[in-house]
Every structure is written in structure tokens, then in C-alpha cells.
Amino acid sequence: MGYNVSGQLGDGSDENRRVPVEIVSSGVLSASAGQSHSLILKDDSSVWGMGENLLGQLSLSGKMQRNQPVEIFGSGYKGIAAGSKHSLFLDKEGALWAAGSNGYGQLGSRVGASSDVAVELLSGGVVSVSAGLRHNLILDENGACWSNGFNSYGQLGLGDLQNRSDPVIIPGDLKMSFVEAGYEASFMLAENGSAWGCLLYTSDA
Fold it and tell me: Which of 110, 63, 109 is nearest to 85 (CA)?
């Protein structure tokens, strides 16, 4: 429900909705909503997308928006995350893939300003991901948290304000169990139950 000008609700229209509308009747494992696009992961490990595709965020050729769910990958995936104008896809082997806008390095250093073909961001060991407005958080199998993308507010947790194209491990001694990338902030939950946040960085911190 809500804003639907790009078809991101996937109901076959571009009309805003004030009440929930069924999009897929069964088999959905998880979903993620970006600014104007949405992703669905099904229990058969397939990935579907709908909404805006101007920058390739659906990882579908052409820039045409989709008003209904369209299959992106037929099988082999266990995680998804929709950022503002980019998408992350985590495959069953632990490799992380990204598509869409790369204006701040969200897709890594091996592509240009955008890509409608998913490119590999990390080759393995990833267990979960979260996409913020223009940055990513990545949790690996060892409990380490990685980050990349936009960093003007210190949301990458690296002690500076420099953007990163390639994922970098956030320094720390604790093992993390959960990551969540917000609008321009980041949060992590450690195995010991403590919570950590990456917000505005200042030289006095």
C-alpha cells in the first residue's frame, strides 16, 4: 500500500493504494522495499522485482518499469535488500551481487555509474545484508561486519567521511549477529546482546 507511481506495489497499476493489496498469493519468504522499487524472495529461492528500473535496480535489461512482479533469478538465492536506487542479492553460496545505481560505490569498483546486470560485490562468506539509502552493510560467517557506499555522515563506521566502493571490514573485536542499514545510519547487534550504531562522525568523537 502507499505510493505507487513506478509500479513498486506490483499490483499491475501505477495508482496509489490506501489499503493492502495482495500481490503474490503464496510462497513468499521475504520482501524488501526501496525508494521506487521492490524485491521479493520466494521459498523456491527465486527473486522477483517490480517498480522503477531506470538505473537497472531490478537487474533487468532496459529501463522500463515493471508494474507486476517479474522474475529476476529463477533459483539459487537466500537474501535480498533494496536500497534507494540499488539492489543486493545474496546467493546460496554466500556470494553477494549488486545492481542499479553506483553513484557512491554501492556496487563496487568494477562498474561505472550504474548497472542493469548484477555484479559480484563479495565472492563468498556472506550470511546477511542490508541496504540503506546509498550504502550497504554486510555480515559475514565470522561475525565481521563490512560496509561500502556513501559515507558523508560516517554511516560506514570507519572513523572518517570518505565513500568506499569496495566493502571494508568495520574495525572491532566483537562478533556481530545482525546488521541494519537505515536512511543515512547503520546499526549492528553483537552476539553478546549489545547494540552499536554508526551515525554522524565528528573529529571530537
Answer: 63
**Residue 158 neighbours by CB distance under 10 Å:** 18
Could you tell me if 84 and 34 are in contact, meaning their C-beta atoms sit under 8 angstroms apart?
yes
Separation CA 168–CA 138 (nearest Å): 9
**Within a 13 Å sphere around the CA of 151, how many CA atoms are in the beta-carbon half?**
24
- CA 54, 60, 64, 66 dihedral sign is negative
Tens of pLDDT along the chain (205 residues) come to 999 999 999 999 999 999 999 999 999 999 999 999 999 999 999 999 999 999 999 999 989 999 999 999 999 999 999 999 999 999 999 999 999 999 999 999 999 999 999 999 999 999 999 999 999 999 999 999 999 999 999 999 999 999 999 999 999 999 999 999 999 999 999 999 999 998 654 444 4
Element (H, E) at 131: strand 126-131
As a residue count, the chain comes to 205
Q: How far apart are CA 131 and CA 113, in angstroms?
A: 18
Strands (E), 45-125: 47-51, 66-73, 77-82, 86-91, 96-101, 114-122
d(C-alpha 132, C-alpha 109), whole Å: 18
Cell of 205: 568523537
Taking a C-beta distance cutoff of 8 angstroms, is the pair 165, 158 a contact? Answer: no
Which helix (H) or strand (E) segment is 85 a member of? none
This prediction has a pTM of 0.94
